[in-house]
Amino acid sequence: xxxxxxxxxxxxxxxxxxxxxxLALADAPLRFGLLRTTRVPAHAVRAMGLxxxxxxxxxxxxxxxxxxxxxxxxxxxxxxxxxTVTPRPQPGNPRPRLFRLPEARALINRLGFNNVxxxxxxxxLRRASWRGILGINIGRNFDTPNERAADDYVxxxxxxxxxxxxxxxxxxxxNTAGLRDLQHKAALDALLERxxxxxxxxxxxxxxxxxxxxxxxxxLSPSEIxxxxxxxxxxxxxxxxxxxxxxxxxxxxxxxxxxxSGGLSGAPIRSRATSVLAAFARELKGxxxxxxxxxxxxxxxxxxxxxxxxxxxxxxxGLIYRGPQLVAECxxxxxxxxxxxx
Length: 342
Description:
The chain is α/β, with parallel strands linked by helices. It is built from eleven helices and 13 strands. It has a single domain (about 35-340), classed as Aldolase class I (TIM Barrel). It has helices spanning about 1-10, 15-30, 70-75, 120-125, 150-160, 185-205, 220-235, 270-285, 300-305, 315-320, 325-340, and strands at about 45, 50, 55-60, 80-85, 100, 105-110, 135-140, 165-170, 210-215, 240, 265, 290-295, 310-315. The chain has an eight-stranded parallel β-barrel with strand order 3-4-7-8-9-10-12-13, surrounded by four helices. Strands 5-6-11 form a three-stranded antiparallel β-sheet. The two termini are about 35 Å apart.
């Protein structure tokens, strides 16, 4: 209800300004000791060797710098994913770089991994008090060539490892030039081999094995999906997030801002993202858990992801259009659908 009242004001502002203001407002009760956790029905899910209080998570990108972990956790998520973080700080692409398409309940972003860098990011993590399931999304700096990209991912993995319940390897953002080339077979095989070797070394050092997750694009061909699934299986990656944002403009071609460059998210990519999710489910045959993301704006959308093969789901753009109530709605819908199926 409160978000419904605030949304017209927020939508009157530049989208990135509104984003930052919303996060600041979310932190306000925390500063004054008034923070209360939203009650979301318990619906435990076990995946990647981890126990999730419910299957609804926050997607990476909303809290890029891990500055709002405690406030966001209070919305009732079963898990949070923060980042993307890169080794060195970077400002991202020039503003404006975030655009609303309200007629389609969609966003276009070309933020470009804007973040405070690994050292400051880790300091923010140390200040957070929440002890639920926390995923950390890692990437390469914009000016690191792909032939040295593995060095950036390794450095990030080493830095965040003590603080993460799982680490997501982001090779699918469309807003860093050349990044999606890392999804190609030879490059992906080499990157994942390097990261899994690093993970084994870190597991020995820290006494625990942190799952590695791969986040993929919704714009993959069937042959690319097959190649990525084979790499996931060969490298013993622990889960796949399907999907990131899309370069397609299908369904929004006629809208005023559709020509802006960047990744499209929200309702128009729901079917595309779910199709890729289902294709990975067919390829991986239940060997690797899947996390469904892309176009979830209702409980029914979340149920659709689970029906397509997801064990968990993630929200981002849906929160912009529906507000925090979407978290509990999705958790209830998934629990209800599973009771009916049983």
